[in-house]
Amino acid sequence: MDMLLRKMDSDISQAFQKELTCLICLNYLMDPVTMVCGHSFCWSCLCVSWEKTGSPAQCPLCRQTSQQTNFRINFILKNLVSMARKASLRQFLSSRENICGPHKETKRIFCEDDRRLLCSHCSSSQEHEAHKHCSVEEAAEEYREKLSNQMTSLWEKIQEIQRNFYKEGRISDHWMYYVYRYEDITRAAYQTLRQAFHEDGKQHLKSLKEEGLKMFKQLEKRRAEMIAKMMSLRAMYEELMDVCHKPDVELLQELGDKLRRSEQVQLHMPQPLQPELPAWPITGLIDRLNRYRVEIFFTNEITNHNITLFDDVRSLRFMRGSLYAALDPGTSNCFAAWGVQVFTSGKHYWEMPVDRSWDWAVGVGKESWLRKNGTLIESHDTFLLLCVKENNGYTLWTTAPMTRQYIEKPLGRVGVFLDVDNGSVSFVDVARCSLIWTYPNGTFSFPVRPFTTSGHT
């Protein structure tokens, strides 16, 4: 009977330990998360597994998918793992190998300075009395919590720099193409003003090219810095992953130095550059456009929660910036208004104030666009300049197709020049007398109405 009971206890103990084991690393669970299928993994093991396989929200064991990727820590399992670890630690502390040779006493005190286990006599000796001490069990709990926090912080930094690296790469890939296109529309503006060979025009185009090349080199340098930083972060993360699976005593003896290095490696994170061309003035530009000046009247302003112009752009940036993030940008109300006039021919110029809002858009489009839906991403009927608030900065975009504009944010007023006969629209920074963007001739061939909207004042 005693043998049978001992066997039953052994079976129960093995089954209990199996439930507390990560199915990826086969060690005790560390910050366990449980998927909808019921399988549990270390949070860090699951993240690394998803990254390697490129299959987020899929169980590494049974392959069942989930709508969720941001799982919460299973604190019931975490507490059970903690109890199991404490039992193992107590068993080790009471073993013969943990007896102090000189004093024949169990070593239950941890010296943080020397990272050694001591008995009470050793801890009060002249060698250790000035050091910081605590019980081994306290130290194990505290250090595992520090390890967990450091691993979480490291992983978040790795993901952040990876997102920034992808973002920087896209900007770098398109930067010179943008510069050359902007150079073309600037040259065309000077030709319209009959100043193609004027000294100001030549210098302007030369400065554009020089500024573009200078920024391109800075972008490439920053990408190299990000690669180096990402490698050091990953190396540190792998070191901590290796330590987290070790028994408490080994963890205590090894972790102190690694925690300090982990904190140091997370300092001085390279941030992505926000390149932009300076707004050079073009002499005579506004004077020429004022020849076609018209007064624009708008319908009464309306608030329409279905117009998600700015969230459309933020969603686009959000999707491109993260491989695994769910798309939930929210919805913001907009104050939108259509112009009373419908333009079917001729050249027309008007100016719109934009200095009281971060999220704004001005331009022209088909009125039917707004009646169909409020999205810009797939629209081919609107030709707008948008200023979109993102985090602590802003980005300028034009629509049809959605294109980032790397130029200074206009101050005060934006001028809109509409050439219906040629099917083109231009935007100018009135205060700086500079060109923002010009749609090429033939962009549209239908009547259009002025449009303006503001999301946040």
From TrEMBL:
Pfam families: SPRY, zf-B_box, zf-C3HC4_4. It comes from the Eukaryota. One of its GO terms (molecular function) is zinc ion binding. Coiled coil: none annotated. Residues 95-138 form the B box-type domain. Residues 275-457 form the B30.2/SPRY domain. Keywords: Metal-binding, Zinc, Zinc-finger. This is Tripartite motif-containing protein 43. It comes from Pteropus vampyrus. The lineage of its organism: Eukaryota, Metazoa, Chordata, Craniata, Vertebrata.
